[in-house]
Amino acid sequence: xxxxxxxxxxxxxxxxxxxxxxxxxxxxxxxxxxxxxxxxxxxxxxxxxxxxxxxxxxxxxxxxxxxxxxxxxxxxxxxxxxxxxxxxxxxxxxxxxxxxxxxxxxxxxxxxxxxxxxxxxxxxxxxxxxxxxxxxxxxxxxxxxxxxxxxxxxxxxxxxxxxxxxxxxxxxxxxxxxxxxxxxxxxxxxxxxxxxxxxxxxxxxxxxxxxxxxxxxxxxxxxxxx
Length: 226
Known about the structure:
The protein is of the alpha/beta class. It is 25% helix and 23% strand. It is built from five helices and nine strands. It has helices at 51-63, 80-98, 123-128, 163-169, 204-214, and strands spanning 2-12, 20-25, 47-50, 68-72, 109-113, 134-137, 157-160, 182-187, 193-198. The strands form two sheets. It has a seven-stranded mixed sheet with strand order 3-1-2-4-5-6-7. The radius of gyration is 17 Å and the shape is globular. The termini are far apart.
C-alpha cells in the first residue's frame, strides 16, 4: 500500500511523550491560517512511500528505544486507508516488541494529529483511527493560543482511545508547557535546510528564525510565514 508523506524523523521529542518516530502525511485541504507546516498542504508534494517501508522504519526505531509513534501532517485522515494500515501494522510491531498485546505499563503508544473536529469523524475516519492509542483533534486556531502541551491552540482536544492511551496521556490532559516546545533539525540535503518540529507558543517561531539568522543560516522561504 502506498502513502504520500512529507517526511519522517527520529527521535522526535516535541509531539508526544518520550522519544518518538514522527511521520508527517502529505496533503491537507483544511489549510488553517497561520499553520507552520504549509509545505505539507499540497497533495502532490512530498514523496510516495510504501507503508511496509514505514513499518520497517518503525521497527528500527523500536529497536533504538522509541517510546511512541506520532502521525501528523498534512492531514492523516485524508489518506484513511494508508493511515489504517500504518497504525494496524505499527500496533502489531509494538506488541511483538512488548512480548504480547497486553497493554501493559511499558511499550510504545501511537498518537495521531488531525485537524478534523470530533463531529467530522465519519465511519471511515473512525476506522482509520482504530489502531491509535490517542488522538489530538481540531483545527489550528491561530487566535486561540494555549500553553497545553502538544496542542497548538486552545480548542484542540487530546483524547485517549485505549487503556494504554489513558495511562500514557491522562497525566498530560491539562498539563502546561514549562518551556520552549520546538525542535530544530538540520536537513543535510540536497538541498540543505532545517525543519522545525513541534507546536510553538506565540512568538516562538520568530525567535527561532532570528536565532538561525544570527547563526548564519539563510532562510529562503520559511513555511511558517503567516
